[in-house]
């Protein structure tokens, strides 16, 4: 039962239709306005009710459209239920002692106007509101923690090292490149259009960048930009790109595996990697990681990144679409490179 005086409202949602094979399509999701939700937390619950303000579109969400769960990561979406992802929300009602009505939070929420979150302990309370709230879907949220933890903790960069970043104009890549430059590294990125290449060099400060779609020989392209080899590779693509990188790694190089977007839609027949012997010959360390590995150090992360934002020392680009109705298109667009920067859905004003 909802609490006394509870208000029931229509709740627009983006629902998952059914498990996906191959590339996702907008028709794999649909908009529903059939359900209502109480804006009061039910008696006996320790949860909260939130109004969702911004939602994050992330490539990993494609993996949750498969039937099998990913152990230690996240459960697959359930057909007929809302898409789940990271977002920024405002607390409407709370029975959690650490959150009150009006507080702002970020973390896992539903693709819907309002959500009931039964375990709010997994959310982060937003204390700093002098920056755009949407930033907590990206540079100050999961995306930023991924870039920071993967580059500094996994790669352990040194001044003067040679760094290659794939998917460099995306939500994570744009930050990794800037972290690398601030460390004194030589940085090259790849992206999927000439406009994005220009963005990497002229806005994000990459030393060089190339359009991988225009390169018929990725190995030759990498040798052109890294004649002495690569010390650090920040991996977000996988497949042919990883295969080309391995022979171009330097001895004792490091590869941080953040994602493999080229493989997410090839579940039944993923591409193989042939140059794995290079890992042995060059003593290359490859390490996969998840953003959750670095959530315990979130306050430390904020102390470093917030001043960079406030002082204009870091560039950050968002690609914001308005309204839940545009959510399916925005998510599917990630896999054709339609977005520029961090893809965000604005659901409502605060």
How would you state the average pLDDT, rounded? Answer: 94
Helix/strand-derived class? alpha/beta
Beta percentage is 25-35%
**Envelope shape:** globular
Low-confidence runs (pLDDT<50, min 5 residues)? none
Order of helices and strands: EEEEEEEEEHEHEHEHEHEHEHEHE
DSSP helical segment count: 8
Radius of gyration: 21 Å
Strand count: 17
The helix content, as a percent range, equals 10-25%
First and last CA, distance: 28 Å
Q: Largest sheet, described in full?
A: 7 strands, mixed
Main features:
350 residues, 8 helices, six-stranded parallel β-sheet, alpha/beta, 21% helix
Description:
- Helix 3 links the parallel strand 11 and strand 12.
- The model has no long low-confidence stretch (mean pLDDT 94).
- The chain is globular, with a radius of gyration of 21 Å.
- It is α/β, with parallel strands linked by helices and 350 residues long.
- The strands form 4 sheets. Strands 5, 6, 7, 8, 9, 16 and 17 form a 7-stranded mixed sheet that branches.
- It starts with 7 loop residues before the first strand and ends with a strand.
């Amino acid at each position: 039962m909802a609490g006394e005086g509870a208000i029931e409202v229509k709740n627009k949602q983006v629902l998952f239709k059914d498990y996906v094979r191959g590339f996702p399509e907008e028709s794999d999701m649909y908009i529903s306005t059939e359900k209502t939700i109480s804006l009061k937390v039910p008696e006996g619950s320790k949860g909260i009710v939130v109004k969702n303000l911004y939602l994050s579109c992330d490539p990993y969400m494609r993996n949750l459209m498969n039937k099998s769960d990913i152990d230690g990561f996240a459960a697959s979406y359930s057909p007929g239920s809302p898409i789940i992802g990271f977002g920024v929300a405002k607390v409407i009602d709370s029975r959690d002692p650490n959150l009150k009505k009006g507080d702002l939070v970020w973390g896992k929420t539903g693709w819907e106007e309002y959500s009931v979150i039964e375990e709010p302990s997994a959310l982060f309370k937003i204390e700093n509101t002098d920056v755009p709230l949407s930033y907590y879907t990206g540079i100050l949220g999961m995306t930023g923690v991924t870039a920071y933890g993967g580059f500094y903790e996994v790669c352990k960069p040194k001044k003067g090292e040679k760094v290659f970043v794939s998917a460099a104009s995306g939500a994570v890549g744009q930050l990794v490149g800037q972290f690398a430059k601030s460390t004194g590294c030589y940085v090259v990125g790849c992206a999927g259009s000439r406009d994005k290449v220009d963005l990497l060099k002229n806005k994000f400060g990459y030393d060089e960048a190339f359009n991988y779609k225009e390169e018929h020989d990725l190995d030759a392209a990498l040798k052109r930009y890294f004649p002495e080899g690569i010390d650090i590779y920040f991996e977000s693509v996988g497949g042919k790109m990883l295969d080309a990188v391995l022979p171009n790694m330097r001895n004792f190089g490091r590869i941080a595996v953040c994602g493999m977007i080229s493989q997410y839609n090839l579940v039944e027949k993923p591409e193989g990697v042939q140059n794995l012997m290079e890992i042995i010959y060059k003593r290359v360390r490859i390490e996969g990681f998840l953003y959750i590995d670095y959530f315990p150090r979130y306050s430390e992360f904020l102390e470093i990144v917030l001043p960079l934002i406030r002082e204009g020392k870091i560039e950050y680009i968002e690609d914001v679409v308005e309204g839940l109705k545009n959510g399916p298109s925005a998510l599917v667009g990630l896999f054709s490179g339609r977005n520029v920067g961090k893809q965000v859905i604005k659901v409502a004003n605060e």
